[in-house]
Design goal:
Order of helices and strands of chain A: HEEEEEEEEEEEEEEEEEEHEEEH
Distance between the termini of chain A: 59 Å
Mean pLDDT of chain A: 89
Number of strands of chain A: 21
Helix content of chain A: under 10%
Low-confidence stretches of chain B: none
Oligomer: heterotrimer
Distance between the termini of chain B: 34 Å
Number of domains of chain A: 1
Largest sheet of chain B: none
Strand order of the largest sheet of chain A: 1-2-3-6-7-8-9-10-11-14-15-16-17-19-20-21
Largest sheet of chain A: 16 strands, antiparallel, barrel
Number of helices of chain B: 2
Largest interface: A-B, 111 and 50 residues
CATH topology of chain A: Porin
Strand content of chain A: over 45%
Radius of gyration of chain A: 26 Å
Strand content of chain B: under 5%
Chains: A mainly beta (446), B mainly alpha (72), C alpha+beta (162)
Shape of chain B: flat
Helix content of chain B: 40-55%
């Protein structure tokens, strides 16, 4: 069967092919079945995250997506989270009890001997809103414009982002370009401490450099998404970001030791506030593959190599495998492995006088050398009408590289890196506004 | 060395994509499924990124935007 | 490489335009229909204007076009319009489920292997071919947007008047 008896010139056919690098619709490769029509697609999730003896967090997310015109979407996401508990303050454990001043400077707290010193004052409520407008400019070019704002009692983050996605190669390849700009403001409790100055013993006040400070973060991303075959899709991104401004954590300190090799804290001002560079450039390569097997199970695997000019390098491997069962049930195991090298200025402790000679130092465990491992399982059920309910449970462990052999004196018997263990529980519900309306109507009819 | 290796792998991957047989529009039934999207469950990914952002020194890579926090 | 570049620039030119091509004969085909499972051939409809649509249950704009196609069917069937919507879904059950919900009055045919789609050099989902009473493809339209309706209907009308 031939469309034409006379052969159409070849280049026209090719142009026609390119002209239709289309297929249109939905997100990158056709949207969710229930995102169509005049309805709102509503996704919601509740997350409980609990660290052993440390921070606990409850986070609720509501996401609403509406098609406002053909293939043009507005997406809004509202997030609220409540955080309580304690976080390592940067000081190392000691064989005697240690007393620290609270960030406010109005009180102090004491940590028992041989325990990781924690800051116990974290009680935080965060509210965040982000809105995205996603629109086609042509059959093969889409644009997304986004804005976000997030508020905590001591932190405000605002940002905008723009991205473009161009389909080429008969819509088998998508090129993406994204840029974002974030402006964040710190309003830390008790003011912004001056780096390397002493955490004073209560009731003395710390030296501050104003009440507020800020930073800007600029990011750019280039990506290629390639359809490999009917069952396989891959993505490769390169991104580069630059942060400028106050990149220090105003609540983190370092223990300062006597320089006699005893490992004892120095007698006066044993703790100083950390101090980081005011600029950071990071880059990453990100690869993701999605493959559906003949039994309809789906493998989603990604790898990220991340590096920055603070000397940090990291490797992240993330693997999700979805088993589909009859009747709309699925199970999805999740494994994640993250390995990070330390920042050049990461120090578990300082010795007396180093705060005057070093340019930067931080004992924040997040800048140290460690491995994070995650194992989780998700169960989901898809209703016939397109709604979905799901639950997942995960365990996250963070383990630092053992440096006790390098530690001096009495510190050799201490756990210097604050290893961490956390559990995550999440429930999610996705539905269409139509279903909600039907349910409410049904409720009132009763 | 590692960077060079990674970059060349990427370039090799990108080039190999050029010789792929295109998937025709009528054959995209599987690719249209929600579970075959790069981000199949956006909220799950959002929550994961938020969690790890506050526990690790690396972030991002998959997309731009989202916003920061003064996380502990 | 240059041809790809020029092709790309043509892509941009075509942006939202509806590509119309030189009139040429529509390839004939024989396919099973839904839900009654009889065989139809395009040549059976010679003398009528045929609105030939390629769709799938997994394609959102395709699904969106169904109520409108039903409207066109009701409005113009007595004037000589036949709508044939060829599904390229691989599985019959998917079409059955969809048909149960939407109950289209026009003809649904099934091309699971895509052989007819190949013959028509399908480049997008959905694609509509408007075929005149003499069996010639007069218009090829890719995609389905609300804003396309008027143009499609005007073409149907002009073909019916011929």
């Amino acid at each position: 069967m031939q469309l034409k008896k006379t052969q159409r010139p070849r280049n026209i056919r090719r142009q026609l092919a390119a002209a239709t690098c289309t297929l249109l619709a939905g997100t990158t490769h056709a949207g969710s079945l229930i995102a169509s029509g005049d309805n709102w697609k509503i996704d919601s999730a509740l997350l409980i995250y609990a660290e052993k003896d440390r921070v606990s967090l409850a986070e609720g997310v509501l996401n609403i997506r509406k098609e406002i015109d053909d293939d043009e979407f507005i997406n809004a996401r509202i997030v609220t989270d409540v955080l309580t508990g304690s976080s390592p303050n940067g000081a190392v454990p000691s064989n005697t009890a240690q007393t620290f001043t609270n960030p406010s400077g109005n009180s102090s707290y004491t940590e028992a001997a041989n325990t990781t010193p924690l800051n116990h004052t974290f009680k935080d409520l965060r509210n965040a809103l982000s809105v995205e407008w996603d629109t086609p400019f042509s059959r093969s070019l889409r644009g997304t414009l986004g804005g976000n704002i997030s508020r905590e009692y001591d932190y405000l983050s605002t940002g905008i982002s723009v991205s473009l996605a161009q389909d080429i190669n008969q819509r088998n390849t998508t090129l993406t370009l994204g840029i974002s700009l974030n402006k964040d403001t710190w309003d830390p409790v008790g003011g912004v401490p001056v780096g390397f100055t002493a955490m004073p013993a209560f009731p003395a006040k710390k030296a501050i450099d104003g009440a507020k400070t800020d930073k800007t973060v600029k990011d750019i991303l280039f990506g290629v998404t390639q359809i490999i075959n009917r069952q396989t899709l891959m993505q490769l991104n390169y991104s580069r970001g630059q942060s400028d401004g106050y990149l220090t954590d105003p609540y983190k300190i370092l223990s300062v030791l006597e320089n006699d090799g005893s490992g004892n804290l120095r007698g006066t001002n044993p703790y100083v506030y950390e101090n980081r560079p005011d600029q950071r450039t990071h880059q990453s390569l990100y690869w993701k593959g999605v493959h559906q097997f003949h039994n309809e199970n789906v493998l989603n695997v990604s790898y990220r190599y991340f590096w920055d000019d603070w000397g940090i390098q990291s490797h992240t491997v993330d693997l999700r495998y979805r088993f589909d069962f009859d009747g709309g049930h699925y199970l999805q195991p999740h494994l994640r492995y993250y390995q990070q090298g330390a920042a050049d200025f990461y120090r578990q402790t300082l010795t007396d006088g180093e705060e005057n000679t070093l340019s930067y130092a931080s004992a924040d465990y997040r800048l140290g050398e460690f491995v994070t491992q995650t194992i989780g399982l998700k169960y989901g059920f898809e209703f016939k009408n397109g709604a979905e309910i799901n639950f997942r449970a995960e365990m996250i462990t963070q383990k630092g590289k053992d440096r006790s052999a390098d530690a001096v004196g009495i510190l050799q018997n201490q756990q210097l890196f604050p290893d961490n263990e956390a559990y995550l529980l999440q429930g999610g519900l996705s539905l269409d506004s139509d279903m909600v309306i039907k349910y409410i109507m049904g409720f009132f009819k009763k | 060395m590692l960077k060079t290796l990674l970059f060349s792998t990427c370039i090799a991957l990108a080039l190999s994509a050029c010789s792929l047989e295109p998937v025709q529009p009528w054959d995209r039934d599987l690719l249209a499924q929600q579970k075959m999207q790069l981000v199949a469950d956006p909220l799950e990914i959002y929550l994961d990124e938020h969690t790890y952002f506050s526990k690790e020194a690396s972030s991002g890579g998959q997309s731009v935007g989202g916003g920061g926090c003064g996380c502990n | 490489m240059f041809s790809r570049l020029s092709a790309l620039s043509v892509t941009l030119l075509f942006v939202f335009a509806v590509p119309a091509f030189a009139v040429e004969p529509a390839p004939d085909f024989t396919l099973p229909t839904f839900p009654d499972d009889r065989e139809i051939s395009l040549k059976d409809f010679r003398g009528r204007v045929v609105y030939l649509d390629f769709w799938a249950t997994w394609c959102p704009p395709c699904r969106k076009s169904f109520p409108w196609m039903d409207e066109m069917h009701e409005r113009y069937k007595d004037e000589g319009l036949t709508i044939i919507a060829i599904s390229v879904d691989k599985k019959r059950e998917l079409i059955e489920q969809f048909i149960k919900k939407t109950e289209p009055a026009f003809i649904i045919a099934h091309d699971p292997s895509g052989k007819v789609a190949i013959a028509y050099e399908l480049r997008a989902m959905p694609t509509t071919y408007l075929i005149d009473r003499d069996g010639q493809v007069v218009m090829t339209h890719m995609g389905f947007r609300s804003s396309d309706k008027d143009k499609l209907e005007a073409t149907i009308q002009s073909l019916l008047e011929k």
